[in-house]
């Protein structure tokens, strides 16, 4: 438990640091980019002892199980796809949101706590050869949904 | 005794190349380049086949003087090792161990925040470790 809190605190500080340094409070680009580079490097290490991925879906499954477990200590609750390059990952208790109390005012602040993860997933997929766009959607805290759109061609 | 270890990036650009014999470096580089085609072939044809799950590709091809082995990571980084045909001390298992160590070194290098992915690997620490890997096996 005490080890896990360190990552939560670090994440909260990164969020504060990035947003206080930028002029626009809604500028999440820096956060997303930090996530991207982290994911890009991290996946290199995480896939070291894993066999080659057969296809896109297998890669996504890896992200939802192994990758998610290592970072958030739990698996995602649901992974859905339309088989045309659109994936929806649902986490009913997203780690960075579990410490925030539910409410409409808090909901406005939610985007800055999911931007890092969007980048993380995008970076990991990018290094595995999948070019994608990742967006997040928070309807009620602490549930979160990530939309991964694979850019083909 | 010739020995060569090369790291090739996603777009087939060389990231790192080390040889034990500087005079024959060019010749060894040709072998590495020739091996890339074989790597590509193995990765495409092997799709779906159960044995292709492994990152280690085995011996890619051999010439009169050299044996060339390959390894491709999940992120499409290629490792190529060229050894002398006369070198019988290195068997399949030893080559496997070299790749495993090299993979370990590479992942550590990528996690270095000063390394920009896709650039050449110029770290002294990485270089020293690879040289050690080579000298331990020649």
Question: What would you note in describing this structure?
Answer:
The complex is a heterodimer of chains A (153) and B (138). Chain A is of the alpha+beta class. Chain A has one domain: Trafficking protein particle complex subunit 3 (Muramoyl-pentapeptide Carboxypeptidase, domain 2). Chain A is built from 5 helices and 4 strands. Chain A has helices spanning 2-21, 29-46, 56-72, 104-109, 111-127, and strands at residues 78-81, 86-91, 132-137, 144-150. Chain A has a 4-stranded antiparallel β-sheet, covered by helices on one side. In chain A, a hairpin with a 4-residue loop joins β1 and β2. Chain A starts with a helix and ends with a strand. Chain B is an alpha+beta fold and 138 residues long. Chain B has 3 helices and 5 strands, in the order ββαβββαα. Chain B has a 5-stranded antiparallel β-sheet with strand order 2-1-5-4-3, sandwiched between helices. Chain B starts with a strand and ends with a helix. The relative contact order of chain B is 0.20. The mean pLDDT of chain B is 84.
């Amino acid at each position: 438990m005490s080890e896990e809190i360190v990552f939560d605190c670090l994440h909260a500080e990164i969020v504060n640091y990035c947003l206080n340094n930028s002029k626009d409070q809604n500028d999440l680009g820096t956060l997303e980019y930090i996530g991207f580079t982290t994911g890009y490097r991290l996946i290199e290490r995480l896939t070291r002892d894993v066999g080659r991925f057969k296809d896109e879906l297998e890669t996504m499954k890896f992200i939802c199980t192994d990758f998610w477990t290592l970072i958030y200590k739990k698996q995602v609750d649901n992974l859905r796809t339309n088989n045309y390059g659109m994936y929806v990952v649902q986490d009913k208790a997203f780690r960075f949101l579990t410490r925030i109390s539910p409410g409409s005012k808090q909901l406005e602040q939610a985007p800055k706590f999911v931007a890092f993860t969007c980048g993380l997933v995008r970076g990991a997929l990018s290094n595995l050869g999948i070019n994608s766009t990742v967006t997040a959607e928070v309807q009620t805290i602490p549930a979160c949904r990530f939309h991964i759109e694979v850019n083909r061609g | 005794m010739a020995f060569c270890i090369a790291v090739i990036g996603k777009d087939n650009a060389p990231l790192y190349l080390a040889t034990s014999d500087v005079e024959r470096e060019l010749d060894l580089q040709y072998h590495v380049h020739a091996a890339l085609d074989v790597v590509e072939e193995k990765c495409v044809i092997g799709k779906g086949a159960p044995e292709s799950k492994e990152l280690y590709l085995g011996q890619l091809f051999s010439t009169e003087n050299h044996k060339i082995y390959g390894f491709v990571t999940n992120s499409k980084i290629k490792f190529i090792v060229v050894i002398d045909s006369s070198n019988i001390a290195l068997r399949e298992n030893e080559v496997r161990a070299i790749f495993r160590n090299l993979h370990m070194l590479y992942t550590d290098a990528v996690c270095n925040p000063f390394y920009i992915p896709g650039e050449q690997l110029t770290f002294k620490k990485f270089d020293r470790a690879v040289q050690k890997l080579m000298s331990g096996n020649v």
